[in-house]
Amino acid sequence: MIKGVAGRLLAWMLEQHLANGRSEFTNREIRLDGGLRLPDFKDNLETRLLLLRRRLEEKALPIRLVRLGRGRIAVEVEGRVRLSRDGV
Predict the structure, then answer these.
(1) Rg (CA), the chain
(2) 14 and 80 Cβ atoms separated by less than 8 Å
(3) What pTM was computed for the model?
(4) pLDDT tens track of the chain, all 88 residues?
(5) Based on CB atoms within 10 Å of each CB, which residue in 19, 34, 45, 87 is the most buried?
């Protein structure tokens, strides 16, 4: 559904949500996760999260990203989430 860095970010948050029931995340923990293969630019994460939030809104998906405050974001999911290797 959503490819590239934005897709990896979304998949990571949803995997955390499914595995641990978590819905809130910090930018710091996202940056520290080497498996995401994020670009080196530190400030770029905020921009990518904003673009991901807009893409989710444009596609009218039952998944939303909500900014909770400086450096904190939450994923809100309506219904059940099922992840596949081909996408979210």
Answers:
(1) 12
(2) no
(3) 0.83
(4) 688 888 889 999 999 999 999 999 999 999 888 888 887 766 688 888 999 999 999 999 899 999 999 999 999 999 887 777 654 4
(5) 45
